[in-house]
User: Fold these one by one.
Assistant:
Number 1:
Amino acid sequence: MVNPAERKQALIKEIKALKKEKSALILAHLYERVDVQDVADVYGDSLGLSQQAAETDAHTIIFCGVHFMAETAKLLSPDKTVYLANPNAGCPMADMITPTDLAKFKAEHPGLPVLAYVNTSAEIKAMSDYCCTSANASDVARFAAKETSSNEILFLPDRNLARYVQTQVPEIKITYFDGFCPTHMRMEVGDVVKLKKEYPDAAILAHPECDDPIKEMADFIGSTTAIVKAAKASDKRVFIICTEDGVSQRLSQDCPDRLFITPTRASAICPNMKLTRLENIKRSLMGDNTPIEIPEEIFDKAKACIDSMMRVPRGEKQSLTPEHHPVTA
Ligand code: 13P
Ligand code: SF4
């Protein structure tokens, strides 16, 4: 009888063989299960994965993440076949703003440039001028304001990222839509306070999607890849990781001699990000999935919105490969 560990190894072997045969690239967000990240060619944050999707020569992209990420990959690589590994994985934050909401928001603030977080549908991007991720939001806000000679911009849908950007670019007025990430909002500031009392030397690293009181306690604020890199570069031993639990899991695996704790852990798990299993990847590689299609009438406008982000001077590449060296010092 084959035990579960042997079955999993066999599945991983099949995925690797299929990936080669189909010339496919597997991308995984850092909120995915660690076994999914481990079979990916690249794992990282939304910006790093978009950059990979734009640059790859692979014929097929298998995206282990949520729907807006696979749509973004398709917009950046229109000639490639893009699969969302589990087609049921959506983002509740992205769903918080509809085209009707955005039309109303724009009508209430006429003439202002619209900056959409990448966590939006292609339809919303088609109605927006600029796009950003959590890794480059302040840079894109500055770029958008300069390019349009405006000292005010509209930001959507995440109010928490918007308020963080406002602290980074005080010279621009950020008028924002009232959306949020339910996963980050379930994290309780009281739990962060308790952990800091228990581990006074711990570093607190937070994602900008966290509520303000958590960010105010943080030693470092950044995207998921930025958090991983900052933790690995730090000489601290204990880390309070204020973002979806996948990041702590990644870090615990890579740096087993350090302690990474997710506050309010049971609630800080994005159910959508955890929908993808190795079986979904195999099925997608076998073509047993529906490729992402973007309606023709919105394609060019949504693409122009994403391309605006690629025009903003890049910082360091925000993606990691499973082969990178874990920090063990
Ligand atoms: P990034 O750090 O990739 O920007 O992640 C935020 C997020 O919520 C993805 O769903
Ligand atoms: Fe959406 Fe939040 Fe889940 Fe990211 S973590 S996919 S923003 S619900």
Note: DSSP finds 15 helices and 13 strands in the chain.
Number 2:
Amino acid sequence: MEKPNILVIGSINMDLVTETNIIPNVGETVLGDSFQTIPGGKGANQAVAAAKLGAEVTLLGCIGDDDLGNELKNHLKDQGICIDYINTIQEQSTGIASITLSEGDNSIIVVPGANSMLTPQLVRSYEDLIAKSDMILVQLEIPLKSVMETAALATKHHVPMILNPAPIQDLPKELLLQATYLTPNEHEQAALLATSDLSSEELEQVKKKCITTQGSKGVRIYDEVEKLIPAFNVEGVDSTGAGDTFNGALAVFLTRGLSIIDACQFANAAAALSVTKLGAQSGMPSLLEVKEFLAQHNK
Ligand code: RIB
């Protein structure tokens, strides 16, 4: 079977991960347990998830002209991702995410740096790349105008697009209407349905595109009627990147022609496996691992 050709347009960050039992209050200093730098960024994470599951993945993104940027670019290459469209931006620092991890849950501050230089003009200059992709995957850690440009070009060339609306912000209704699929979590879904200036008909249209991730409660979709695809219960050590794994996997399995329900089941399994290791990308599974996991859990 031919490999799906997935284009991810999004952020590339280095995650600065501190593990701690105690989260400090304002003005307080506490001693943490460990510190690591781990590759991340929603765009890069989703690209790695899709590549590990056997897709041909290209990542369009920006890094700074610094050591972190070089390290991330080499790492993405090692993951089998096409890095020809990763732009090094002079006098910009590579994006970072400061992550505090406590009892498996995280809080994150992202400083976009070079990611904010992924401009609409830059996206437009890669129109050919967009036109020849089987699926586009985009998130909101790059400028909103660039996400809108991506959606316009994807629509023009009839390429399906998954918009993962994270981190959430006010979104123009054209974007919601142009996306083929929206993958918010519950909080993001509530915000995007509330903040957009949608008619009741458009609201229904948008709701039907939503594949809403609800953590341990599973994934909610509208397939004629509302359906819940249950999550798998696993012993998690780090939930960072679980949503990204879900998105990367969803893109792969939809492109391979699975129904939304089956694609979500595979993507749920991939996301469950991803939380069993520290770091956004370390636990992302291969196709074989997902199949073995499903075979064990669907007995
Ligand atoms: O979704 C997880 C990601 O969000 C982290 O890897 C971090 O870089 C932030 O972008």
Note: The pocket of alpha-D-ribofuranose is lined by residues 11, 13, 15, 40-42, 45, 97, 108, 110, 141, 240-241, 243-244, 280 (CB under 6 Å).
Number 3:
Amino acid sequence: MKGTSCEIAVLQHVDEMRAFSTKCRNENRIIGFVPTMGALHEGHLSLIARAKAVCDVVICSIFVNPTQFNDPKDLLLYPRTEEADIDLLKNAGCDVVFVPAVNEMYPTGQEVRDYNFGTLTSEWEGRFRPGHFNGVITVVKRLFEIVLPHQSFFGKKDFQQFSVIREWVRRDEIKVEIVGCDTVRASDGLALSSRNKRLSSEQATLATAFSKALLFIRENKSKNNVNALIAEATEMFIEKEQIELQYFTIANSETLEPLEEISEANHQVALIAGFIGGVRLIDEIELN
Ligand code: PAF
């Protein structure tokens, strides 16, 4: 079954999902997988398009994973738009959408393993969302065991998540190729995110300060001194009292270790996170 805009299978149960994927594998069809938590936007659809370009069958999951939310209020407020999401996926030519209930994903309770990859898991998101990556890896591992993908596609807006998953796959010798895809932005630069649905239009305009600060970093990276550069870019947030920055850094894009100087010797990424109103946003820009 190759996806067209008029057919999509909606599967809810682990057994039927795994049976479908096993059949595809037996037929030597390459499975591309896009895991999501729904509230889909153009960023997700770009992952589907990327998967469609290189795989024979494209599977998307929609599962708001409780074990990766360290803040119960955030989980409660996470936007849920399943019907609209399925329509978008259908039109994007996705073949199958897997929409399991919590007890399908966690039949024996919501246990998570502890993953410690040093800075990769302990800093940035790891520091401000303790346990977050344990929940992410736990659910992605379970999804991979059900969906049996050859390739899985992740947006680089969640740059640290992409890096952590890539490292976990490398360490545990998981036979899935992890494909990182560029952040998709609105015309004003705002990185697309499911959380943007919770911003007022005034807050969404304010939120463009994140991408402007990141762009400033990239345009001025020849200044080399990271502290000076970050201090200058942070001035963009002065008089924007509604924005509460959590971190703003330039890091080695492999290890996510913070850098003091930008040099030709390594690749760098600038990472930023903060709250606008009650909404937490993150963004990234690669500097090479
Ligand atoms: O990026 C997300 O939407 C989630 O963290 C993921 C990868 C689907 C795991 O729940």
Note: The pocket of pantoate is lined by residues 35-37, 65, 68, 136, 139-140, 158, 161 (CB under 6 Å).
Number 4:
Amino acid sequence: MPIFRFAPSPTGALHLGNGYSALYAFDRARQMDGSFLLRVEDIDQGRCRPEHEAAMLADLAWLGLTWEQPVRRQSEHMDDYAAALAKLSDAGLTYPCFCTRKDIAREIAAAPSAPHGPDGALYPGICRSLSLTERRDRVAAGAAFAVRLDCARAARMIAGDLSWYDRQSGQQYLQPGLHGDVVLARKETPTSYHLAVTVDDALQGVSHVTRGADLFAATHVHRLLQALLDLPTPEYDHHRLLQDDDGVRMAKRHGAVSLAQLRDEGRDPGELRRSLGFEF
Ligand code: GLU
């Protein structure tokens, strides 16, 4: 049975673009007689709030969505991410990185050329070449560190071309180095978005990942992690992003209209769904 999900982070009010994304997943599940899961992506405990989560669920129910129980809350499953991270570390595919943002910026500014990825300059690999003793000493001295994926090593571990299918853009081929040595965990947050989302989609049996086109490039990281952790690859569907009246992509930080606002204004949810192109 097809399994779809919507996976918001409770860092603020859901805006209309989030509503579109939720409806998109729900509607495709409905059309394919599949199930629809809701996953609360709350690993960033500094920014996520229980009151945002409660408001989010109320907004989605108002939109006409129903979902399977129980809802998976990432903060309750840190052991699953730790196990996946240990598997990667045991395979020699990770290293501790002690760099501050400043260290990284300084190194990039001083380099004659800095390779870039979809999200800007790639991590220049300062800590990749530290000796084992140096790593051990710094950790023992209590230095804060992040755990990074050694993407060049990871690329050597995987066999052949890896691909995935995106419903909008067709067959895609993995570029293992596209995002460089991504962060997989931090001291204060023992997993990253990339690791948690990959593990959860597999553990929840998600067969179809629908999400906004802004996460298209992130799928390179997820596909790589699936190969390294021996996890299945879902079908992807990176849908268009809604824009506000000024043609700017809707985002919390740009003050996009929230679902709560629309509800308070007395907007009819059925009419709102239809105006977004959904027929239920
Ligand atoms: N939690 C992510 C977000 O709110 C979405 C993750 C995903 O759909 O893969 O942007």
Note: The pocket of glutamic acid is lined by residues 7-9, 41, 197, 211, 215 (CB under 6 Å).
